[in-house]
Amino acid sequence: MGIRFVLLVNKQGQTRLAQYYAEHLTLDERRALEGEIVRKCLARTDQQCSFVEHRNYKIVYRRYASLFFLVGVDNDENELAILEFIHLFVETMDRHFGNVCELDIMFHLEKAHFMLEEMVMNGCIVETSKSNILMPIQLMDKAS
Amino acid sequence: MAAASASSSSPSLIDTLFQRSLDDLIRVLRSSSSAALEAAAIARALDEIRREIRSPDLDTKVVALQKLTYLASLHHFDMSWAAFHALELLPSTSLPQPRAAYLAASLSFHPSSTDLLPLATHQLRKHLAPSPSNSPAVAAPALHLLALASSPDLARHLAPDLLPILSNQSSNPLRPKAVATALRVLAVCPDTAPVLFKPLVECLSLSSDPRAVSAAIGAFCELALAAPDPSPYLPLAPEFYRLLVDSRNNWVTIKVLKIFARLAPLEPRVAARIVDPVCQLLRRFTAKSLVFECIRTVFSSLLDHDAAVRLAVDKIKEFLASDDDPNLRYLGLQALNMLGPAHSWAVEDSREVVIQSLNDTDTNIRREALRLIMGMLCDSNVVDICNMLIKYAIKSDPEFANEILDEVLATCGRNVYELIVDFDWYVSLLGEMVRNPHFAKGDEIERQLVDVGLRVRDARPELIRVARNLLIDPALLGNPFLCKVLSAAAWVSGEYVEFSRNPLELVEALLQPRTNLLPPFVRAVYVQAVFKILAYSFISFIEQIQAGESLAIGNSLNQRGGKQEGSDLVAAKSSSDQNNAFEIGDGVATADKAILFDSIEKQETFKHESISCLLNLIETVVGPLSECGEVEVQERARNVLGLILIIRGTQFWNIEEGHELTRDNKITKMVELMESAFSEELGPVSTNAQKRVSVPEGLILNENLSELLDILGDDDINPCASVSFSLRNHHSTETNQDSATAIEPNSLLAEHRKRHGLYYLPMDKDKSESNDYPCANEPLLPVSHGEDTEDIVKLPAQSLIPEKAKPTKPRPVVIRLDEGDGVSSSNLSTAKESKDDMLSGAIRDVLLRNEKKPSSTHKTSSDRTSQRRENDGSENSELISQQKESNSFGDREHGKSSSRKSRHHHKERIESSGQNRDNEEKSHRHSAKSSHHHRRHKHRQRGDAPLDIVPQSPVIQDFLL
Fold first, then answer.
1. Which of B81, B357, B446, B662 has its CA 20 to 30 A from that of B13?
2. Residues 6 or more apart in contact with residue B778 via CB below 8 angstroms
3. Using 50, 70 and 90 to split pLDDT, how confident is the model at B361?
4. Contact present, B472 and B509 (Cβ < 8 Å)
């Protein structure tokens, strides 16, 4: 399924955005999964690689300021391409919010979800152009 | 509005006016300093939400839903109860409201937990319909919801609604989304393939919007990767190839490469065709993600093309050399791991980097390097590499040290120690591992120490040396991780005491004061080992005296001839005879010599005083244990004390000269008893031993056993009773009872075997063996020697590093019983395949039909496909049964070989590798055959179909040739 989930977690391990694709998890399973991932990834340093094997898939993560972007992918997914995807997501948000920070995502969770929705559908990346991703949101902002 | 809210009971106007927004809620949560405060705030918010969400005012409702979505998504609160409220907001015409509702739904709905999903069908259809009133802003989240939460029913109902979007030629932003959603619909409900697959294929065409192409290639990549047999996608190879050559989008190229990695093994022409473009990409592009994908493709599917492999390996070296980027180093190691031992030269090239990576700061990189090194192990380099790793483990951190030990143990123990030639080395390596300061792998070492003892006769002298070194070290006794290992060492020291140079030293080690630190179950093993050593020492002592007697006789006989050597010869012979009593059927000349050497030494050690000293020591230390609270320890301690009492009861204390001893019947009898108690060797037992016993006719295993008492005669029950009796009471009535305990299990066992031979492993597994324990080397002494020399000649040629392959001694025989693991796993996989085949079967239908009749109406086509699917189903089952056959064939061969294996392992190893190759070839051939089979099937179908159809399968052939 390509991408299994996208998680945004801050340095304290609090979830700031969570989107799961295809695989359905109960609330308890999600809490457990997010806890495990946070423990595994947040303890790692900059000198260590950005890929962690977890259960039967891989987690590709990258840290931007206080936020960790964690993406769970299938084992045959290209890790470097996923890193590029994370970077694209961050740049897109940065273009929209201007110097994006954790608070922007907290107070505009809906918009972050919309952007992600434009980029990823059913675990597949469907849009990689920043302006295309932001167009519907800008239209909506104008309308309201 | 006001009247409405007044009439409905709970939400008041006040609520609506003073409702807290989502931002308010977030601020409150942020300002709550402790977890308790936050929980209270959330509880209050949830109460409000429950009230507000029932408000008839849609604005109030949507804010409540937004707050609930926030809490559910980030704080893991249940919101399934609000599903209906989300559905209520979907039809709203004000844009933000359905969007908020869709977001809530896509984060919480799932067919397994949401019963209300069918209620959404109509609204989704409305939003997906191409009308000017629908903006993409609602169609996009509708697609998103469909992709995340579609049940088979929902997928079936809404699949036709995806068609207009999918086949829209203009650059509709919804089209790529519809492609991704169609992928999900196909996965949930394969029946929709006839409807959806054709537009998906069209998305790949040249005229399509690049975004649609990108999404479609992603979808095909997922389909091809998920399918157990990707052959249905082969006809699309020309399209994929065009994209591979033309596409300027890295993401698309990566996906195309993934598809080709899957297709290339099916069709050699595809592989030959893509080699060049892949090499071009490797040379020209700098984007690491693309380069890495090319490397992966080469390593997984293009291994036959040497130039490509070399190029990829060069790129890997660049990856490994990038000191500042741990990601590239990790991926480089991972890619090298994909290469099999056939390409070990690639690892050899980067050997230094790989070994350095064991020292990396990143555990993942270290682990990958370790995996890589272990993958390169073969019988010629196993000694060097394992020695290096074990030394390395001493210096590394606790976690990784144990990972290294784990890997070494697992790899060396794999397939009954198939890599190990020099067991003396391996056993001492096991001893070395224990000395690692972070050692925590007691269970596995315990298992392997005992296992090697059971399986490899020639390793026993070294094994007992290692056991002695472990037992004798008082520092090891306090370590809780080691007690399992010590338990194994104690068992080894008792069981194979005849190889020990100094049994008395062993007893001292087993009874040293710090042993009271051990847990009771280990202590019990210690005491039992003391029992065995004591029995052995006493027998040796007696027989030594007897031997001395015969020596005296021999001397008197030979005195006339005056030949001193002759007497030595006799002495040697008699002592070797005596040792043969323990060594049943030992036929190896070298082993005999070793034992002879041992026995000559032992003649020095077993003196009158040393035996009495031994008895005193045991009595003092084991004595208190007879009052021990632990039954196991207590019982065994009493066994030992009982034996000592018997020994003391005999007259050997008072005897100075041996000749009187032989007349003491009691002693001879006792020696015989003790010998027979311990001389029987323990062998490994197959895990399937029980399964192999066929249930005799008329025996119902689930039957109630209460009637057993009537069926069994008295004579069956009596011996059991006497055993338990003697165990409990031997302290008071030791003399006869105790020796009875020693002998009875054996005689009972023999008797039981005679009566119920059916339930035991067959005695004559190998025709050459008279014993149920396969003897070392004995039956084929001349033959095996011939093979050994052959093997030594071949070794250097096989080895990874030729100069290090020294002509070692022949690999000792390792007893192995057949394993039945392969069978169950293959069954599993076939079961999985048959399940997964549904989708690819449906897709194959569609592809074939597309090519035949591009413009057929849905109705007739679905009828036809359903018919064809039946055909296909039968074909699939045929295939699977074929596979099963081939599997079982392989198993049979394996079984045959393993029975041979116990006799001459050397030849077997060579054979088995050859056999593997055979099997591989066979499977290749088989897969080739099966793909042919498909194609033939296609041809047949074409023959059935009307004549106006353009023959399709040549397309790929023309293109490729």
1. B81
2. B585, B586, B587, B588
3. confident
4. yes
A32 touches chain B (CB under 8 A): no
Taking CA atoms, B183 is separated from A30, A75, B240, B848, in Å, by 25, 19, 18, 19
| Domain A3-143 indexed as CATH 3.30.450.60 | yes
The domains of chain A are located at 3-143
H runs (alpha helix) in B778-820: 781-798
H/E run at residue B714: helix B714-729
Q: Does B320 touch chain A (CB under 8 A)?
A: no
Q: Are B776 and B588 in contact (CB under 8 A)?
A: yes
Q: How close A134 gets to chain B, by Cα (Å)?
A: 12
List, for residues B467-507, the tens digit of each pLDDT value: 999 999 888 888 888 999 999 999 999 989 888 888 888 99
What are the pLDDT digits (tens) for B238-268? 999 999 998 888 889 999 999 999 999 998 8
B chain contacts of residue A144, beta-carbon cutoff 8 Å: 95-96
How would DSSP label each residue in B206-241?
TTS-HHHHHHHHHHHHHHHHH-S--GGGGGGHHHHH
B591 close to B780: Cβ distance less than 8 angstroms = no
Give the pair of three-digit tokens for residue B485. Answer: 């290992």
The predicted complex's ipTM stands at 0.95
Q: Do B76 and A53 touch (CB under 8 A)?
A: no
- How many whole angstroms separate alpha carbon A105 and alpha carbon A115? 11
> Measured between CB atoms, which of B78, B173, B218 is closest to A125?
B218
Chain A residues 83-112 with a CB less than 8 Å from chain B: 83-84, 106-107, 109-110
Decide if B251 and A125 are in contact by the 8 Å CB cutoff. yes
Question: Residue A67: phi, psi to the nearest 5?
Answer: -110, 135
Q: Please give, rounded to a whole number of angstroms, the shortest distance from the CA of A91 to a CA of chain B.
A: 17
Nearest by Cα to A70 from A28, A92, A40 = A40
Tell me if A139 and B331 make a contact (CB, 8 A cut-off). Answer: no
